[in-house]
Amino acid sequence: MNGTVIITGGSRGLGKELVDLFLKENWNVSTFSRNWPQEFEFRGPSFLGLKADIRFEADVERIISETKRLLGNPSMLILNAGWVSKATRIIDENIINLREDVEVNLISNTFMVQEFLRKCSPEAVVHITSDVAESPYPSWGFYGASKKAMDYIIETLKLENHDVKLISIDPGDMNTAMHRTADPEADPAGLSDPAEAAKKVFNRINKEVKR
């Protein structure tokens, strides 16, 4: 099982580990980040790293076109990029943070899927979701609501696109910069290593997506 995959948010955390795994398995990998990591420059001919922002439609269109031009028509999209504000009770939250969560986790991800389905050779879309989308946690309301909404989009797309495998995968709570920003008091001992979480995600994809 290989081809060309687009992995959103591949510069750190789970996304970076997924990029490494797919490259090791001889996939062509395209990814992007708002900030340009130095390692993007030294990954070889099967890797494409772009400075881009999923919130901007023009950047998403450029990601699709550059991936097709340089790596071939992608067959898989992994929606890993996400945004989470600092974990705060809803009554104490600034409503601007809800707009930011929804903009990235729902609206931008949905546009990315639309462009992928319209312009590529889609076989699979994988949404990296969260356990807070299924079971509400105190202080994670905005993030959980935005992830739950994206899960709903994926479930609806399943009914509309029978030739494309669409799945949501929860990698569990990980010791990442994003999680530390959202919940600085979380005990790292209770969080999984992103590399181990990436292996579980990769194995689940291999199991569910048959080529």
Q: How would you describe this protein?
A:
The chain has 211 residues and is α/β, with parallel strands linked by helices. It has one domain: 3-Layer(aba) Sandwich (Rossmann fold). Helix content is 44%, strand content 14%. A 6-stranded parallel sheet has the order 3-2-1-4-5-6, sandwiched between helices. α2 runs parallel beside α3 and α3 runs parallel beside α4. The chain is globular and about 50 Å long. It starts with a strand and ends with a helix. The mean pLDDT is 89.
Q: Which strand order does the major sheet show?
A: 3-2-1-4-5-6
Gyration radius over CA: 16 Å
Order of helices and strands: EHEEHEHEHEHH
Helical amount? 40-55%
Distance between the termini: 6 Å
Mean pLDDT: 89
CATH superfamily: NAD(P)-binding Rossmann-like Domain
Using the coordinates above, name the CATH class.
Alpha Beta
Supply the number of helical segments. Answer: 6
Instruction: Flag low-confidence runs.
Output: none
Strand content: 5-15%
Structural class: alpha/beta
For the secondary structure, the number of strands is 6
Estimate nothing, just give the exact number of structural domains.
1
State the CATH topology. Answer: Rossmann fold
- Shape verdict: globular
Main β-sheet, in a few words?
A: 6 strands, parallel
CATH architecture: 3-Layer(aba) Sandwich
Q: How would you summarize what this structure contains?
A:
The chain has 211 residues and is of the alpha/beta class. It is built from six helices and six strands, in the order βαββαβαβαβαα. Helix 3 packs parallel to helix 4.
